[in-house]
Design a protein that fits this description.
- The structure is a homotetramer.
- By secondary structure, chain A is of the alpha+beta class.
- Chain A has a domain of about 210 residues: Hypothetical protein af1432, CATH 1.10.3210.10.
- Helices cover about 55% and strands about 10% of the residues of chain A.
- In chain A, the strands form three sheets. Chain A has a four-stranded mixed beta sheet with strand order 3-4-7-8. In chain A, strands 5-9-6 form a three-stranded antiparallel beta sheet, with helices on both faces.
- In chain A, helix 6 packs parallel to helix 14 and helix 11 crosses helix 13.
- The radius of gyration of chain A is 22 Å and the shape is globular.
- Chains in contact: A-B, A-C, A-D, B-C, B-D, C-D.
- Chains B and D meet through loops of B and loops of D.
């Protein structure tokens, strides 16, 4: 047994008691997450939000550990091997993220889920560590992360409407942005957590805290993740990725060494992929300022010096304003972008509704129980429609 | 100019810069608020909630002071005299509260609004201090507190759907109960506050924070103010008041000296009223344990030693359970009580809706702007129906 | 096994898992602590410091519970019975405190240690509960609280230079006064706690946190407990107690019913003592305003309305100032008092020094290890010398 | 007048009211600070400490703004022009820092003070902005930052034993590391701040808070800045810088494009320097993993994957241990390093002691007034002596 801790403002400490967790944290692939920011453009608005996927992954693990310590039903429902599967899945669920992940996936067509799976199952330090402990461990963790329903309870705990992943990142992102949302009462939620017929459900008196969690989620989307300036950064980054990709395809001769990315695009290997991180992409963008291609160098210079695009909000802009911008910029795919993002705090279409246990040992859907959640699921689909464009 | 401070965890400091405020705080009537608890039965559940109306009144004042400092529109809309009216109204708005106020009012038929007015306008230190500064000041403050519409802007700031009173007590009660709600982003709300045509309205981008405030309010009712054990204490206290009152009316010879209360009931004078506070009522209840009247002494002994009644929740109880209790206790007005409490986080019937300013300089109702608030106003009417009864 | 919690801002929750603890908390004698304030005159300065010995006692218990959960050495060193002794001792250590305890003890000559022992060992609910679980439990707990060295390890944990009692009250008092000291890193201190040869010692790398704890302690004395206005309240209360006592002795006929106190003074029984609490004393002082005895009624009126004495600081006052006051007030034992209080954050004379474990498995005294603590123990004896006097 | 804010957990908001501050923040040179981490190796231990000099510089500015708002003496002592000098100096005091600044300066012999001056006075956006407002502004700010004694009061506020720079970074570093030190009571310190004869001094009753600040400083050095793992990162980074420098001097043909650094070393121009930031250095280190030079590639690979050196603490290591390591590694300047760091929380040799105002309008040195500070200045020189070495 090891006895290590990481200081963490959210939990006091992240506590590492198992050797396997210690080894996984020290693996090359996990350490790489120190170089992948959790939030992409958000630090353009919230100047302190420079935290990494490394710290979020530790947090999701710690929360999983606390679930096993504090939620007696879960503790009893899982055997020792399953507990290990749970802890490792929480720790590793984001290991395949690329630099500025969402845009990266979109333009370069490499999904982080696939990559996470490939890292866990493929030729990696992580796979060696897992296999040493148990030959099935790697595939079982991969099965949890890709929702194969082999371990439905663990899947629910790692990834559902209310899981260790979301609970950590909402609080963590709030801490670093300074948003006064997201101070969810985790203790109370865990006190309400039960297992019945192999599924998680919540005592009815913990519903106010779940409502509070959904409210936080809604606000984080509204005010942080979809903040026009955050989005603008991401829109511009996507354009740079787009131009980069096109120039590679067109055989343009880069002044910057972009061979690593070409490797990734061509071969899609784990080995190539793992060399790509924020350090690499930031370094390229810095160099791109001096490229001959006018568009790439212009976009890179803007992004690097935070000379972001303008934006107008379609909800409030007059038709004339919109027309004028469209007339001038419409054809220019690198200097004009209509951006629509939308998110519901609680999606009630899906099967995996949160279940509530009410007195009389009856099980009801959260939606049925809470009129507030009902309102959230319908009305709180926060939709943002903006046009980003370079100055005219 | 004075330069005094009171340490306050919510604001860092309560800052007193005006001599009149300093004098009012030191008045006998205001110091009495040190002996009136802010929350009545709540400390039966939340063992740290022993804070007083004194600290809340200082807090409401400090928030008023910050509004004048930070909200430029308000600063410009009020002249020096009106600023003084505002600060004093915030400070004094609760000065007429009795011990365990809500039950007190109900049983003894003495409203705290009337009493506040009487203290401000009558023969009191407070009245002397106010009149010394300006002969109209007392009546103008009383007019604000009783909503006479002479100073509509100040009335809105002191008492409306979103005012310095509520903003302080939600946060303060949360601090002392340890509830993780109520951490409202006051700064952000104040940044959105505007004055237009002599009325307060809010910039549309501060709406998420107002939604958050309403959510906090909803939760504080649900989990704190209407907590079954808090309510139980209040129900039992009401019964003691009731029995006390009846015994007085019936000419019962008390062992305890209850002359002060008799004075209040008979004469309803400010002078008599001000002698009544938590110290007095607690002292009487302590003595009542040794009264000959069986009901009074039993109720007092129970309350004093926290041997509270049982309760069942009508939402979940079976008909049989309810019937059994009713059969046994129904006729016993001192040992049986059906308690229904309900509260909406946002009441949209009333005139004084919160107004939102959207781009294009248009003014809309908050309800129209925010589907979440709409949901709150309709569905979040938290209703609690319980039966409290002594053990069978 | 029970599974109850009390919401507590310092720990999230106070967790009750053992039936015996649940029963003790519900005992009449323990519930009485709800009516004994933790800090006496401090709320005259820090208007939110109205917390009770009830909440502190729960906190000391919770900290003891966390020690058993988190400090493996302690967990292993104690058997189940000893664990119960530890938890109960932490919970009950203050159960014999009187109203405004320090002055009460001084004037009426009733020590709270003796009273705590008498309650635990005598005819009380608490004694019944303890004895039901184990016939030796009451006497073993009493032995811990009065330092009989039967359970030296538990004694150290409950009462020493660094124990669950002090760690809780420093943090709690800081929370309620709003002082920005006292935010001690308990987790880190517990991580450094070891047991060697049946004694507590601390790993050398937790020393900075112990230094921090001593600094907090020093500051709380300096700025809170010994604040001139806090002390003034206590000085005046002592005078009231003194006058009260003298009038009883002289056969003065009280208008107020003071029979309970007379009982306590005469018989010193547990039964009589338990009827005395803040409610009782406050009620008496309120009544004393209307007594014929001029001194008693004057002091009571002043205290009740916070018309405190003046004070001068002997460190800075000129000889002339001091002489003038002395000339006028010197003979008046009720209106003049020289008050000297002093406290060292760390007392190194005593045997029970904090021990530090350094690499090489060597044990050294904290004083030897930390030059800062050395400085504290010598120089930080905060001494305050003031004269309190009524206006001339 | 502008009215912008930056969300900041430490202050609620950083408030920008002056156009010049807004322009400076948007300048290319200031935006570059987004790409310079505040703490270098610390995030190797405290995984959340990824905050930047950008956020610290905003914080120091905000604190300066609050001093002007809250400290009446300072407000009155400075005219409008001087206020601008103060605010700009606080904002810009770190603008010349390089990537991983301390090692950078040491190896490449480029001081950040000189560079800050050159940026402010030279051909930069910042200089243009300043000069547009007032032709003297740039040189006056430079004079403050390099302590030319033209504005002694402002110099004291920007850089002394207790200034806006230190107060911000102690709190900020504590927030991001999660250290429970550093929660200094800024409000109370500002309330004690006075100006007398053109110099800052502090009221005697704010001394406890200054003691607390010094304690925090001491602890941050002990536990954070000088943490063995933080230091190890810096030691290894210095070795990489050293090897990099030597290889450049020796004419080694880099696979990586290092022309920017060569420019800086050769020309030392502002223009070249500003292109160097964490992005650049991290990118180079990433590439260095693939260099032919065995030492450079090995060090880079270790650092990149957090395979840090071992260390022993000379305070506790036996002579044998030390000898064994020395024998094996002594000659290897890239794999062996004796590291001695020492810091006093309060340096009393220097002229600019903190002055305290005691009753009677007398001025004394803080050292004379506070025995605790005396202890700090002598004994709290925290000294750390370690040997870092690669595994044997």
């Amino acid at each position: 047994m090891v006895n290590k801790v990481f200081r963490d403002p959210l939990y006091g400490y992240v506590r590492v008691n198992d050797e396997i967790i210690d080894e996984l944290i020290n693996s090359t692939e996990f350490q790489r997450l120190r170089r992948i920011k959790q939030l992409c453009g958000v630090s353009m608005v919230f100047h302190m939000a420079d935290h990494t996927r490394f710290s979020h992954s530790l947090g999701a693990y710690e929360l999983a550990r606390e679930v096993l310590e504090k939620v007696i039903d879960v503790k009893n429902a899982l055997n020792d091997y399953e507990k290990t599967v749970f802890l490792c899945s929480a720790l590793l669920h984001d290991v395949g993220h690329g630099p500025y992940s969402h845009s990266f996936e979109k333009i370069f067509k490499i999904s982080h889920e696939t990559m996470t799976n490939n890292i866990i199952l493929g030729d990696s330090h992580i796979n060696k560590i897992l296999t040493k402990y148990n030959p099935n461990l790697a595939s079982d963790i991969a099965s949890v992360i890709s929702h194969k329903h082999k371990f439905p309870l663990i899947e629910q705990l790692v990834s559902s409407q209310l899981d260790v992943d979301r609970m950590d990142y909402l609080r963590r992102d709030a801490y670093f942005t300074g948003a006064q949302f997201g101070d969810i009462d985790i203790e109370k939620i865990l006190r309400g957590m039960l297992v019945k017929n192999g599924k998680i459900l919540f005592k009815y008196n913990s519903v106010p805290n779940i409502e509070d969690y959904l409210m936080s989620r809604y606000h984080m989307y509204y005010q942080v993740y979809f903040h026009p300036v955050s989005r603008c950064f991401e829109v511009m980054l996507e354009m740079i990725y787009q131009r980069w990709y096109e120039l590679i395809k067109s055989g343009y001769q880069f002044r910057t060494d972009v061979s690593l990315l070409i490797d990734v695009i061509d071969k899609k290997t784990v080995d190539a992929f793992l060399k790509i991180d924020d350090v690499y992409v930031n370094g390229c963008i810095q160099q791109f300022q001096y490229e001959k291609d006018r568009i790439l160098s212009d976009l890179a210079t803007r992004l690097f010096n935070r000379k972001l695009f303008n934006h107008i909000d379609l909800k409030y802009a007059s038709d004339e304003q919109v027309d004028e911008i469209k007339k001038l910029k419409n054809n220019d795919k690198y200097y004009y972008k209509e951006d629509v993002v939308a998110k519901s705090a609680y999606d009630y279409q899906i099967d995996e509704q949160i279940k509530v246990l009410i007195p009389g040992d009856k099980e009801v859907d959260l939606l049925e129980f809470s009129p507030i959640v009902k309102a959230f699921s319908r009305s709180s689909k926060y939709t943002s429609k903006l046009i980003y464009y370079s100055e005219i």
